[in-house]
Amino acid sequence: MRVTPGDDVVWQQLEEETVLLAIGSGRYYRLDPVGSRMWALLDELGDLDRVSERMLAEWDVDPQRLRSDLDALVAQLAEAKLLTVEPRAA
Amino acid sequence: MTPRFHYRHYGLAVAADAELPGLDPEPDRAADGDADLTISVRRQPLLAPVDTGWAPTDRPVVWRSGGRVRLRFTHAGESADFVIDEGGMSVAVTLTARVPDADAGDLLAGPVFSCVLAQRGACCVHAAVLAIDGEVVALAGPSGAGKSTLALALVRAGATLLADDVAALAAVDGRVTVAPGSRFVRLARDAAEAHEERFDELPRVGLHPDRGVVDKALVAVRAQCPTRTERRVLGRVVFLEPREPGLATPRTKALEPHEALLRLMRHRHAPPLLDAEADRRHFPLLGDVARAVPTFALRRPEGVGALAATAELLAAATSPC
Known about the structure:
The complex is a heterodimer.
Chain A: E1 2-5, E2 9-14, E3 17-22, E4 27-31, H1 33-45, H2 48-58, H3 63-79, E5 83-86
Antiparallel strand pairs in A: 1-5, 2-3, 3-4
Helix pairs in contact in A: 1-2, 2-3
Chain B: E1 5-9, E2 12-16, E3 24-25, E4 37-43, E5 55-56, E6 62-65, E7 68-75, E8 78-84, E9 90-95, H1 101-119, E10 123-132, E11 135-140, H2 147-156, E12 160-163, E13 166-172, E14 175-178, E15 184-188, H3 189-194, E16 204-208, E17 212-220, E18 232-240, E19 251-254, H4 257-266, H5 276-292, E20 295-299, H6 307-316
Parallel strand pairs in B: 2-4, 4-9, 11-18, 18-20
Antiparallel strand pairs in B: 1-2, 1-3, 5-6, 6-7, 7-8, 8-9, 10-11, 10-12, 10-13, 13-14, 14-18, 15-17, 16-17, 19-20
Helix pairs in contact in B: 2-6, 4-5
């Protein structure tokens, strides 16, 4: 799946955390260190599978657990309109 | 316009065709051509309704049209109207007959100038700014938090006042800097008397942009700055928490960067101009502040008796830069 930060979202990484601001709503969101790393990779790579691969290479973590956490975060971000998710072109 | 009066405010050279109490006179500057900002003032019996086409913002006293901003303050049938051009290079002021000069000057020096700075690209935070042992400290808080009162206590303890109410922040060479503002502080009667100032003998200002009429006095603080134009690197931010009647002694608590960023965004000044474009510019700048500048919350006891101890606490925590 292709993922892209929303046009109306700006963010700042502060130490290991990230604060996101949704410009339209004026709402702030805070990501913990793991969520911050996921967000940075989602922005950098733009593809859920590649983000998962990169995180597995970085961290000693169960692949299924990682993917489940990643999917959950992406779903939350998409629901808050911080991220757009599109199926990968065939 | 024939400028006859020259001032220096937030580092800008100001030329005006009328006397403006509340701005810092700069009589030595004779040439008008080098002014950063020109102000024209006229009086008329009644102000016309705002032209059709101006779009009101969420604050009833402010309109925007293209790049221009218009602020209108009204009280007891009297009005003061300010139109700021797109680049923050000129202000056209129209006053009804009985608006006191002191109020017009005070509105210009405060909320109007905040919009001028915003039009020129600065990020304004609601804060007094002082140099304490060489370290530039911003005391942030909403109207009525006691910023000016505490600032004057710090000045009396040896600090230098850089700005009373607005910290105009901008990034310069990768560092967050603050412009020198004004040598005046505005104090309510109880705060002035706590500092042993004779309130009734001081110049008074009244109209307040958020709270209607507030009787305050202007106290001039002796200029101690090396220059009135040099930007200074911001060294520390202290947020003034509401006063606590039961608290025995003042204390500070360090804030996490994310907390500092949210508070800084919330404490921005010139709210009429805080649109999406401003959010995009200010968020990274204030992110830089949250990352690089130590930030604290200050808890204080109620009452003027705690002022000296609070000033002492802030002065003791400095590290010269």
